[in-house]
Every structure is written in C-alpha cells, then in structure tokens.
Amino acid sequence: MDVQAIKRTFGIIGTNPELDRAIGIAAQVAATDLTVLIMGESGTGKDVFPKIIHQNSARKHGQYFAVNCGAIPEGTIDSELFGHEKGSFTGAVNERKGYFEIADKGTLFLDEVGELPLSTQARLLRVLENGEFIRVGGNKVMKTDVRIVAATNVDLPVAIERGRFREDLYYRLNTIPIHIPALRERKADIPLLFRKFAADFAERNHIPPITLSDDAMQMLVNYRWDGNVRQLKNVTEQISIMETDRHITAETLAKYLPNRVPSALPVLLPREDTPEGMSERDLLYRVLFDMKKDIAELRAQVNNMNGGRPMEPTYVQPNPVTQIGDTVVTRVSHDEPQVSEQEYTEFIPAEETHFGVVSTGSTTQMPETLSLEHHEKEMIIKALEAHRGKRKDAAKALGISERTLYRKINEYGIDL
Q: How far apart are CA 144 and CA 107, in angstroms?
C-alpha cells in the first residue's frame, strides 16, 4: 500500500514531506517483526502509526492492544502487562492474563513508554530479547510472540542520563525509529487540517462550517501550536460552537489562542522543563531548592575528599535587601558575621518541593501558615484548570508523570 492510499485509509491529512516519510517507513517496516519506536511531541498523532504497522503486517488478523503506560499506576503496571497469579497480592482473587499473553501472535502498542518504572523496564527488556516473561507472583517462565511498537514524547537519551530509563532497553526499542514532525514544522498543512476539523464538526452537529479571514488564517498558520494537531482540533471545535458569526476574523481568533507574550518586567529565566504558567515567585522558589540540592551534593563530595569526616557548615548572613520597583535584590558580603544552621534553615525550609514562594513587600520569606503541601496542591489545581481538567496535559505542564499526578490528586482530595 502506497503513502496516499494509507492516508485515505487512516484519515491522515497533510502533504508535509517529513510526514510522508514517516508513513512510508511505517508501511515498509510493517512486513517485518522489528520493534519500532515512534517519537514526537504530544498531540502529533503518534497513535495512528502502530495501526498502520499492524494493518499492513502478517499479524493483522491477530490481537491489537494499545496500552497507555503513563496512565496505569506503578503498583499495577506489571500485573496489567504480564498478568498475575491468584493470591500474589491483596485483591488478586483470581489469576489474570496480561497484555503480553493476550496479544500473542498480535501487536502491542506501548504508548508513553518513557513513563515505565525501572523494574518494569527490566521485565520488558527480557520480553524483547527472548520473548519470555513471568507473571507477578508466579515462577513459571511463559513465552509470547508479540510485535512491540512503542511511542514516547520524552527525550529518552536525556532520561537515560538522569537514570530514569535503561540504555539497553532504549537500543532494543529503537531498532526502527520513526519521527513524527510537530505541527509548527508542517505550516502548509494547518489550513487543510482546520478546514477538515471545521467541516467534520459542522456535519456532526448540523451547523454551517466556520471559515477564516485571510489575516485570521495567517495568524493560525504562524501560531506555535505546542499541543499540535490535538490543540488545533480543540480550538477549531471551540470556535465552531461558541461563535454565531461563521466567518472568523483575526480579532475573534485571538481570543481562542493562549497569549504567550512575555512580560516586560525583569524575570528569572525558566529552564526548558519549567511548567507553563509558573510565576516569577514560583521560579524563585524552585531556584532556591535547586541551590539547596547543589549545596548538599557539594558537601557530600567534600566529605568524601575529607576521608568521610563531615565538613563543618558555614553560613553567610545576608545584608538587608534592596528593592528596585517590584524586584528584590539581596547582596551577600563574606565579611558579615556568620549565623547558625538553625537560623539559616528557618529561611530555607529543609523539605524540598518544586512549587511556591511568597514575596511580601521588601523581603522574600515563607509564610508560617502555608505548608508546602498546600502550595503544591494549589499549583496542581491551577494546572488542571489551565488545561480544562486534562490530566495528561496538566502533568506535562507540571513536569511530573501522569501516574504521579493521579496519586497527588487522590492524596490531596482534589475534586475536579
């Protein structure tokens, strides 16, 4: 099946050469049993490519399962993938087959594979190497013949450097890599996708389709689209249902595109992994704890160089702060008298978190009545509201896994 035929079959819109190349690779590799790793940003349509591979393979009459590895709690992911024996853990009243057993002779799509715990990664590596696995709580080695297609929006080489992903598993999964281009790399496809989404929504809801003025279309094409095709579809459907005038101007369209114009005030520059929407005070708080971690690591290294004898901590008393407009500047002099560790830790809390700092006038300090947990809960609620309750997008914005976000929601009793 050629690229154009695949596009028609699976409803893929676009003429971008990189997109066509990705489809061509998927069709070419389908006839083999090689493991495929699909890489691309969230919302680019990675879930379509495993279906292309499965439907054009000799396994097309076998089972096809798609598993979102990031949405399954860490405590149950092994049971979901590999099955469990009766009585292997609390609640295991019967034995259960996992996806590797059920999908035998078929295809298993592991979405968000970068979110797998390290223990599960070791089990997955064994399956990829020799097709063997053991159920949770069991001791019998079982065999499976399943085709693995994995996908991730995580930069796996970076995750390997940070110890979050196994290097040997990465090379086993990355036998055939397929990169899906982001929507901002497919500008010529944006008008086509918009018209398709507008026409489909109008047909389903029996309303006239919306159209864009020339300047509105130019604004649509030039927008960054961090959420890619998924975000474009959501915006198109929002406009279709909310606007009575079916011809959309640039002024109207701008109301539906998140404003990303930076402030003119001096700010702390966020890192690439900083959650979207984090304020300057939150960034400052994050920097404080990053510094604290660096100090702890440096102290450990010095202790090792000192023959294991702990180094006596010294702390510097900061000079009075100076306020310039809304910006608070603190100059530190090494000639100032030292303060005790107890006084120092009252300024920087011992507990680490990614969220929150409150600036009160001329000084920056932690309020006594506001716990770190409360501020973390507040940031989670803010992220969920900003992404309209979509936990996957909120988790990405917060820089945590979707599994961790689920746990935090339950832990803090957040009612969505």
A: 11
Helix (H, G, I), strand (E, B) or coil at 289: helix
359: tokens are 């600036």
Q: Are 56 and 30 in contact (CB under 8 A)?
A: yes
pLDDT tens sequence across 364-400: 444 444 456 777 888 888 888 888 888 888 888 887 8
To the nearest 10°, report the CA torsion of 52, 55, 56, 57.
120
Q: Give dist(CA 72, CA 259) in Å, integer.
A: 33
Alpha carbons 60 and 267: distance in angstroms, whole number:
54
- 123 C-beta neighbours (distance < 10 Å), count: 19
End-to-end CA distance of the chain: 45
How many residues are given for the chain?
416
Two structure tokens written together for 389: 């309750």
Provide the sign of the torsion angle of the four alpha carbons 49, 235, 206, 211, taken in this order.
negative
- Confidence band (pLDDT; 50, 70, 90) for 101? very high
What crossing angle do the helices spanning 372-386 and 402-412 adopt, rounded to 10°?
A: 120
Question: Tokens in use for 121?
Answer: 């990664």
Q: Are 298 and 292 in contact (CB under 8 A)?
A: no
Nearest to 156 by CA among 172, 142, 170: 170
Distance CA 296, CA 377 (A): 26
pLDDT at 275: 52
Please give the average per-residue pLDDT across 353-367, as a whole number: 42
The three-state (H, E, C) secondary structure of 89-149, written as one string: CCCCCCCECCHHHHCCCCEEEEECHHHCCHHHHHHHHHHHHHCEEECECCCCEEECCCEEE
Report, as an integer, the average pLDDT of 299-320: 60
Q: How far is C-alpha 314 from the chain's CA centre?
A: 40
CA distance 26 to 122: 27
Identity at 329, one-letter amino acid code: V
292-320: b (≥16 Cβ within 10 Å) or e = eeeeeeeeeeeeeeeeeeeeeeeeeeeee
Helix (H) or strand (E) holding 212: strand 211-212
